[in-house]
Write a structure and sequence with these properties.
This protein has four helices and six strands; from the N terminus they run βαββαβββαα. The chain is α+β, with helices and mostly antiparallel strands. Strand 4 and strand 5 form a beta hairpin. It is elongated, with a radius of gyration of 16 Å.
Length: 122
């Protein structure tokens, strides 16, 4: 299953702890920035059975992890290359055009926020 809206600081261990309550996890694939190889706010969680996945959708979807409401979605299956972010630079598309900075996410919004601050009179 696809898990989105993760903090850039959420670890694989935190995901394993939360999703492991719903069943035995086969593997977790963290979403990575293509260039920097840093987390970019999503992951894939694979269970051994459909029932375990359904439990995760039922009980974990919409819960809070690292002060963010996470979103779970069905996924057709992981293929190599899908762990990298979208967009021209390998980050999430929305982060490239974001004007605010969310401390829980980091990303391109921080660059924009710094640019805005540098223009403000002291």
């Amino acid at each position: 299953m696809y898990v989105g809206n993760l903090s850039f600081f959420t670890t694989e261990e935190q995901i394993y702890e939360l999703f492991g309550k719903c069943g035995d996890i086969k593997r977790i694939i963290m979403g990575l920035d293509k260039i920097k190889k840093t987390p970019c706010g999503f992951c894939f969680v694979e269970y051994y059975t459909r029932e375990e996945s359904e439990n995760a959708m039922r009980y974990v979807n919409g819960t809070r992890l690292d002060d963010r409401i996470i979103r779970c979605d069905w996924d057709v299956g992981f293929k190599e290359g899908r762990q990298y972010g979208r967009g021209k630079t390998g980050g999430q598309v929305r982060d490239e055009y974001r004007s605010d900075f969310d401390e829980g996410r980091g990303g391109y919004g921080k660059i924009v926020q710094n640019r805005i601050r540098s223009r403000e009179p002291a």
